[in-house]
Amino acid sequence: MMRNIKLVLQYNGKNYSGFQVQPERPTIQGEVERALSTLLREKVSIVGSGRTDAGVHALHQVVNLKTDSDISLYRLRWSVNALLPSDIVISETCEVGKKFNARYDAVSKEYHYFILNRKHPSVLIPDFCYFLAKSLDLTAMQEAANKFLGTRSFFSFCSNSGWKEEDYIKTVKKMVCSKDDNGLIKIEIKANAFLYHMARFMVGTLIRVGLGKLELQKIPEIFESKKKVGYLAPPQGLILADVQYPD
Q: Is 167 a catalytic residue?
């Protein structure tokens, strides 16, 4: 009997050309499918909740796969983890209904972006944050973040082109900026879905505001202009933190 299995992945994206399979390039999907196919002795294809860019990380990337194997979920997780590189881990496994699709059934996703905003870099977390020595105005950044909330076209804040106008309409449910005592800024972004580079363009815009290089009132004008912005934040600070599904 065909089974549908849901996996939750965590990965450090530093050494990969993104999630999606690419010819002759290391990708998260390629490594996971290789390990699963080796274990299950059948060609396995996985469906991901979405694609992450080269250098972007994940703490909660959801995928599903179909298999005829009767392997236990416990053995599947431990055996595949043994076959995967150390920078990719399966953290959760469960069996789901036959119609479950990790991509199309997702109702929202949450990304976190980290900026180390102080005079010196870190020796411990350089792969997981964007180091910026110039001081950022966190209050101004939060005011800018508030202007992204709601449902509208995010055409100006993505790299996608040539789609129908309605395809660019997304709903941003949360965008919160905070900073700890060590100078680490965390930007939490939750939306029903994300376009290509959307989260990084949004963060890049906040950084420009925080540096005093972009006025707050310009953000609504960018939305209305339908012109692409050029403020793309580096990939290493971005982490896919969660993917939500209907109860």
A: no
